[in-house]
Amino acid sequence: MKLPGKITVVIFSTVLTLSLVIGALLGQERSSQEPYRPLAVLSEVLSRIESDYVEDPDLTRVTEGALHGLLESLDPYSSYLTPEEYREYQSREQGEASIGVVLSKRFGFVSIVAVLPNSPVQKAGLRPGDMIESVNQQSTREMSLAEVNSILGGPEGSPVEIAVVRERAADPKLFQLERTVTVLPDVVGRIVSPGIGYLRMEAFPEGASGQIITLIQELRESGAEKFVLDLRDNASGEIEEAIAMANLFLKRGLISYLSGQQYPRRSFLADPNKAFSEEPLVVLVNQFSGGGAEVLAAAIMDNRRGDVVGEKTYGIGAIQKLIPMDDGSALILSIAKYFTPAGKEIQGNGITPNVLVDEEREFVSLSGEGEEPAEGEEPPAPQQPREDAPFKRGIELLNAIESQPEAA
């Protein structure tokens, strides 16, 4: 093995060993079954790459790849940023333009969890469940989620190219989008059935809890005695707003709590002085409800305040910390996770409704109107009105409850 290669192997193995030893001294739990054996294997793998690979390897790139994989194996939101990636990450300005999506990464693929209304992505016809195969011709499989989000951000009006894959399509389709500053949508409401008010939230913008107070009062004046809170496809905004909103429907009880290995438990308890609505309530969720929507739904369900109807949710519920490293790189680590009142971890698990109802989603081709479907891609099915089964079931549940409006 060449000397530079030996030095790289030794340094990489030493850093990992020291990290584990320090973690053990700080009280991390360790398995009694040879906890350090993987380090020896890693060192041997690097040594074999240097000595036996078909050509002289770029061990810097190999090491960076190993670090990317190491962080992504923890969860989709933990990332390693090389010095160059970190500089780009730092250069992003708060509130800059993007394409209006919430992303996650599973099994190496970047997928769309939520699409913001009036965003470039929505106008292009993209939707939750679509996978972004590349950004500006760079494969997302080789990028951390933080890096993908960083590249998608940029000056307002600037172009970005993404390649998107949808189920049943053989090949990705290219989209040229212009970045815009997308404002999170407000809460909307209306009467949908005699005595039943409908509240729709596609995100949790700042001030959402105040908006919903106003809407509930207006719907009460229009005859609402029961409410449907629709959180489907809602995975963006601030979890703090979701906690505040949960309190509007809860006089007492645990809303959620945060906990981590080095993060003291932080509980969010309902304040009876902030409760606003005691009317019967049904919450609608689906597989693309995430983050604040999951915290709110779990609080309502676990406190037996109302029924949660729909599909198992996505599973987004962690907070991250940026940790700069001495060489100019950085780590983004999940340091705490949100838990339901019943003590279930939301991150990676989601929330299972107490009333399970599948949501029918019609297949729509990625081909634009008037375009021929790509080779291997099925033509779009005729657009027929579909029954909203979760909504219908929610109305049935509310109609079965005797009205007891007792506004707080």
At CATH level 3, the topology of the largest domain is 2-enoyl-CoA Hydratase, Chain A, domain 1
In one word, what is the shape? globular
Radius of gyration: 24 Å
State the low-pLDDT regions, or none: 3-33, 368-373, 379-384
DSSP strand tally: 17
Distance between the termini: 74 Å
Task: Briefly summarize what is shown.
By secondary structure, the chain is an alpha+beta fold. It is 30% helix and 23% strand. It contains 10 helices and 17 strands.
Give an account of the 3D structure:
The chain is an alpha+beta fold and 408 residues long. It folds into three domains: 3-57; 87-178, Roll (Pdz3 Domain); 188-318 and 333-399, 2-enoyl-CoA Hydratase, Chain A, domain 1 (Alpha-Beta Complex). The protein contains ten helices and 17 strands. The strands form three sheets. Strands 2, 3, 4, 5, 6 and 7 form a six-stranded antiparallel β-sheet that branches. Strands 8-9-10-13-14-17 form a six-stranded mixed β-sheet, sandwiched between helices. Strands 1, 11, 12, 15 and 16 form a five-stranded antiparallel β-sheet that branches. β15 (318-324) and β16 form a beta hairpin. α1 packs antiparallel against α2 (37-52), α7 (208-221) runs parallel beside α8 (239-249) and α8 (239-249) runs parallel beside α9. The protein is globular, with a radius of gyration of 24 Å. The model is unreliable at 3-33, 368-373 and 379-384 (pLDDT under 50).
Q: Layout of helices and strands, plus pairs?
A:
Layout (H helix, E strand, L loop, with lengths): L2 H23 L11 H16 L6 H14 L6 E3 L1 H9 L9 E6 L2 E7 L4 H4 L7 E5 L2 E2 L5 H8 L6 E7 L7 E6 L9 E6 L2 E5 L7 H14 L4 E5 L8 H11 L4 E7 L2 E7 L11 E5 L6 H11 L4 E4 L7 E7 L5 E10 L15 E2 L32 H11 L9
Parallel strand pairs: 9-10, 10-13, 13-14, 14-17
Antiparallel strand pairs: 1-16, 2-3, 3-4, 4-5, 4-6, 6-7, 8-9, 11-12, 11-16, 15-16
Helix pairs in contact: 1-2, 7-8, 8-9
